[in-house]
Amino acid sequence: MTGREYWMWMAGIPWLYYEKIKKLIGIFGSVEKIYHVDEKELAVRAGWNPEEIKGLNDSKQSFDPKKYLKMLREKKIGFVCVEDENYPEKLRLYGHKPYFLFYKGKLPDKNIPAVALVGARACSGYGRNMARNLGRELSERGVQVISGMARGIDTYSGIGALEGNTPAFAVAGCGADICYPSENIELYDNILKTGGIISEYPPGSPPVSWHFPQRNRIISGLADKVVVVEAKEKSGSLITVEWALEQGKDIMAVPGRAGDRLSSGCNRLIKTGAGMVTCAKDILEELEYHAWNHGDKKMNQEKILEKDFLLLYSELGLQPKNIYELMEATGLEYERLMEMLLHLQLRGVIEQSSDNYYSRRDVCLEKGDVYGKVSCDCGITGKGKDNQEIFGEKL
Questions:
Q1: Which of 66, 152, 197, 294 supports an S-S bond with 121, CB 3.0-4.6 Å?
Q2: Does residue 291 have a pLDDT over 50?
Q3: How much is the average pLDDT of 39-54?
Q4: First to last CA, the chain
Q5: Which DSSP category does 369 fall into?
Q6: 204 and 231 in contact (C-beta within 8 Å)?
Q7: Angle at 152 between CA 191 and CA 170, to 5 degrees
Q8: What is the DSSP letter of 361?
Q9: What is the Cα–Cα distance from 350 to 145, expressed in whole angstroms?
């Protein structure tokens, strides 16, 4: 099977949820190795019980890549994994990103600003009107509106967004082929006309309660800003806020009357520093400020990435080092480190001498050349001993 097919196999196991997958990847290193791992290793290293091991073995026996792809095509469902080029760039930055996504319609455009509108399911008339107006005005101004398509604020945000001219998106807590709640079937169908329904759960997955807090990290991750329209002090919408803060996203909230329980969560957010939203213009102004400074932020991010790659490269020598030595020396998380090592391998500057052991290739990246004329995506540049080509051009 191909790497993508291994991910497809894993994505189709409904009981193998995100945290469990993350733990397995941390132990065994890749989805391909998980597929081929023997029962003893699963029991000893992962602590799996016989029932779990049997379930994994059964999934291998029943999985047929061609049949699975045919099923997805018949249901008009797309699939994307972290190794795909079209995996959402905004999610790729985070350590808690989903390893794969199923979607109907299409994925958000990375070049168009996106705002998540979230809030209470049991909302007031004030909340419904604000959500719909904000959704419509943002969409009219070219902003992608993202919601969870739940009852209440999510529903009216989506309805408003569809009244504008920009595709809208919803992240589901069930399979992308299931409309939940069922009364939102018209909204579901209308979103699919120009936008998309996204889920990390395989087709046919029911709306289980624990799915919803988990999917909130995707809602906030896909958005440039998160706006809470109406929420109680302990609203589930504030889970999205927690994810957004962890992701470094800006939070905004619609204020309500003092003492109003449905607005107590929003008022507290504003009191603690969230931006205040009284109309769509407040959000648009913040987005324009963000766009104005995007160049500087991107440059800073690239510098951070350069430092990470240079730190990792500096720890490598011609004598191979174990992955765990590199984790301790660099302070990088396993998943991030593996991505960087793969990137450097593809660039031809390091090699994997044996399982989990890495070393530099016999080239010389001199300090003075690091920010030279030729650069790769990771920011490292250099030349060989005889000024040979390393990244496609000569220095």
A1: 152
A2: no
A3: 91
A4: 40
A5: G
A6: no
A7: 30
A8: -
A9: 42
Distance CA 76, CA 86 (A): 17
Are the CB atoms for 351 and 368 separated by under 8 Å? Answer: no
Report whether pLDDT(383) > 50.
no
Tell me the C-alpha distance between 313 and 271, whole Å.
45
Buried b (16+ CB within 10 A) or exposed e, 236-259: bbbbbbebbeebebbbbbbbbeee
Quick check: 347 pLDDT over 90?
Answer: no
* pLDDT, tens digit (0-9, with 9 covering 90-100), for 228-262: 999 887 777 788 888 888 888 889 999 988 888 88
Mean pLDDT of 98-120: 94
- The CA distance from 135 to 143, in Å, is 9
The side-by-side arrangement of strands in the sheet containing 250-253 is 78-81, 100-105, 196-199, 169-171, 144-147, 114-118, 225-228, 250-253, 275-276
* Per-residue pLDDT at 222 exceeds 70: yes
Output the CA torsion 89→91→96→100 (10° steps): -80
Structure confidence at residue 199 (pLDDT): 96
Residue 117 to residues 68, 104, 138, 163, 178: CA-CA distances in angstroms?
34, 20, 10, 15, 21
**Cβ–Cβ < 8 Å for 147, 286:** no
Give 362's contacts (C-beta < 8 A, 6+ positions apart): 318
Better-predicted residue by pLDDT, 14 or 303:
14
Distance CA 135, CA 130 (A): 8
Q: Over 90: is that where the pLDDT of 272 sits?
A: no
- Could you tell me whether strands 196-199 and 169-171 are parallel, antiparallel, or unpaired per DSSP bridges? parallel
Cα–Cα nearest to 146, from 178, 185, 105: 105
Query: CA-CA distance, 28 to 45, in Å (whole number)?
Result: 9
Q: What is the pLDDT of residues 174-204, one digit of tens each?
A: 999 999 999 999 999 999 999 999 999 999 9
Rg of the chain (C-alpha set): 23
CA–CA gap between residue 228 and residue 147 (Å, rounded): 11
Length reported for the chain: 395
d(CA 187, CA 156): 9
**Angle separating helix axes 280-292 and 294-315, nearest 10 degrees:** 50
